[in-house]
Amino acid sequence: MVVPRHFERSRDAGRALREHGVKFVYRSDITPGTQMKPGEVDCLLVNTTGELRFFYDHATVIFVGKSLTAEGGQNPIEPAAVSKPVIFGPNMQNFADVVRDFLAQDGAVQVKNTAELEQKLVELLGNETRRAELGRNALKVVRRKSWGD
User: Fold this and answer.
1) Rounded distance, CA 27 to CA 125, Å?
2) Are 53 and 116 in contact (CB under 8 A)?
3) Cβ(87)–Cβ(63) under 8 Å?
4) Of 35, 63, 48, nearest to 8 (Cα)?
5) Burial class of residue 116, CB neighbours in 10 A (0-12, 13-18, 19+)
6) Spatial separation of the C-alpha atoms in residues 128 and 120, rounded to whole Å
7) pLDDT at residue 55, rounded to an integer
8) CB 91 within 8 A of CB 73
9) Rounded to whole angstroms, how far apart are CA atoms 55 and 67?
10) Which of 31, 122, 136, 141 is the right S-S partner for 107, CB 3.0 to 4.6 Å?
11) 51 φ, ψ to 5°?
């Protein structure tokens, strides 16, 4: 799944996926009657609003956007609250205390750049035990801190 932070960017994301040979479908094109054959689609591109939290349960690893190149970062608490392994970049200024707690308790992974992001994704996608450990630790941090959204 790819979920641009702003649905207006979904066409750009779709172009990038197409350029990399990824077979995808836009979320808005899926109806209750939509059926896909195995292998027909590699990726769901979510181009709707208000649905992100429903997709966290289905994710294997969650990368927190706006954290590699932009200033500030997005909220890592929601994916951590559903016990998912979370990765974010160096720009998490808007959530500095949260990030510090996750990192101190081995509840998330922080990367410096896209190369390190790719490396960590490969590692986590290939290691179910580590993913589960990160998810459990993240959930413990959320429960201890009881941050609200």
Assistant:
1) 24
2) no
3) yes
4) 48
5) middle
6) 13
7) 87
8) yes
9) 20
10) 141
11) -115, -5
Token output for 33: 């009657």
- Asked if 52 contacts 46 with a C-beta cutoff of 8 angstroms, the reply is yes
Checking phi first, is residue 109 left (phi over 0); if not, alpha (psi -120 to 50) or beta? beta
Q: Is the pLDDT confidence value at 95 over 90?
A: yes
| Encoded amino acid at 32, one letter | P
pLDDT in tens, 65-92: 889 988 888 889 999 999 999 999 999 9
List C-alpha distances in Å: 10 to 16, 73, 84, 92: 10, 19, 24, 23
- pLDDT tens sequence across 117-140: 999 999 999 999 999 999 999 999
Spell out the residues 6+ positions from residue 88 whose beta carbon is closer than 8 angstroms to its own: 63, 64, 67, 73, 76, 99, 108, 109, 110, 111
The pLDDT tens digits for 21-65 are 999 999 999 999 999 999 999 999 999 988 888 889 889 999 998
